[in-house]
Amino acid sequence: MIQLSLIGIGTGNPDHVTLAAVRALNAADLVLLPRKGEAKSDLVDLRRLLCRNLVTDLERTRIVEFDLPGRDAQAEYLDAVDAWHAAIADVWAELMDRYLPEGGLVGMLVWGDPSLYDSSLRIAGRLSASGREVEVKVVPGITSLQVLTAEHRIPLNALAEPIQITTGRRLRERGWPDDAATVAVMLDSGGAFEALPPEGLYIWWGAYLGMGKQSLIDGPLADVGPLITERRAALREQHGWIMDIYLLRKC
């Protein structure tokens, strides 16, 4: 039996790691750290730092890094994601078989929280579907959406109004969601808000939330939209990658 703990670690600030996450990390026999390429080395660097600082017995708990398979950007999106998840599940299974052939506790450090626009739970489900005995535990973490509203010092929703959380792809393709006063946009490859008529919209944007290079902009979308686009491009050029999120509200 493998027990797999998906441990939410927040968005880049080690202070965001919960006591429950620390306990789960120290209980693990094996911790798997994904590498996402040289451009995103900051992400694995933070995971390494957390392991060094929080794991009390590095001789008992084995830390293993692995290269995350890439997604085919040319294939149809859902087909490409399905194949990508299958490839990642195969890597997880191979590492578990290699390092814990008799079973044990495995920890995976998940950026943000495993439940919010993260596929770790779906990938873990493939392990059980393949016939392996895998028990999955989730340790919740602070999400980029929580850090965004905290850093801008705003409530997530307008008073008594609904909010919709969506992706840049869907916002670009479908426009403003029906009956939503506030829209949180994640996984935007860049500038999906430009597909909206900017009048009457306010935006709160943040990149690298929780990290030392955090960047924030807010204001009427008509005024600051071009500034966000320019800042985002410059940051991506400077760091080789970018992770951002924003909140849009009718005003």
What does this structure look like?
- The chain is α/β, with parallel strands linked by helices.
- It folds into 2 domains: 2-139, Cobalt-precorrin-4 Transmethylase, domain 1; 144-250, 2-Layer Sandwich (Methyltransferase, Cobalt-precorrin-4 Transmethylase, Domain 2), CATH 3.30.950.10.
- Helix content is 36%, strand content 25%.
- It is built from 7 helices and 10 strands.
- The protein has helices at 19-27, 41-54, 77-99, 120-129, 144-152, 168-174, 221-239, and strands spanning 2-8, 30-35, 62-67, 104-110, 134-139, 163-167, 182-186, 201-207, 215-220, 244-250.
- The protein has a 5-stranded parallel β-sheet with strand order 3-2-4-1-5, with helices on both faces. A 5-stranded mixed β-sheet has the order 6-7-10-8-9, sandwiched between helices.
- Helix 6 (168-174) links the parallel strand 6 (163-167) and strand 7 (182-186).
- Helix 3 packs across helix 4.
- The radius of gyration is 19 Å and the shape is globular.
